[in-house]
Specification:
Elements lengths: L2 E6 L5 H18 L15 E7 L2 E9 L8 E8 L8 H17 L4 E6 L3 H5 L4 E9 L2 E8 L1
Parallel strand pairs: 4-5
Antiparallel strand pairs: 1-2, 2-3, 3-4, 5-7, 6-7
């Protein structure tokens, strides 16, 4: 079973910070072959959701209060380690991320910038498409909202 830690930036250990940056680079830069500025100055404002399975960081997201990314609360950098995707941890990650926004920020409105190929996945978590698809770092994305 996956175990989650939910922490603001200033409570992350050096090891946790290294692990989350390594995982984001592994998937978003290397696996997706996308050169972009992952370290964007927003981590300090985010709440970090770290999912560990057998001692390995297997899932991760970052959460934002309203107006820190979108006008609504937001979930970003949603990621599951490739070697753990068969365990469906993405669903656990989204459930805990949504619950955390409700608990920490007392918010139910959530906006995300989703990679287009994951649209159905997010729809399964109550998100609906807002507008047309667009390119972000040369990857098709779609804005989605949950109310």
């Amino acid at each position: 079973m996956i175990q989650f830690k939910i922490k603001p930036f200033n409570e992350l250990s050096i090891t946790e910070l290294y692990e989350l940056l390594q995982l984001r680079s592994e998937v978003f830069v290397v696996e997706q072959n996308c050169v972009y500025q992952d370290i964007d100055g927003k981590d300090q404002k985010a709440i970090h959701v770290l999912g560990y399975y057998e001692g390995v960081l297997a899932a991760y997201s970052r959460l934002f209060k309203p107006k820190e990314y979108f006008s609504d609360s937001s979930i970003g950098r949603v990621i599951v380690k490739a070697s753990h995707r068969d365990k469906k941890f993405g669903h656990d990650l989204m459930r805990i991320s949504i619950e955390s926004i409700q608990d920490l920020f007392q918010e139910t409105n959530i906006t995300i910038s989703a990679q287009l190929y994951l649209q159905k996945f997010y729809e399964g978590h109550g998100f609906v498409t807002v507008g047309e698809s667009y390119l972000e770092d040369d990857i098709p994305h779609i804005e989605m909202r949950r109310v």
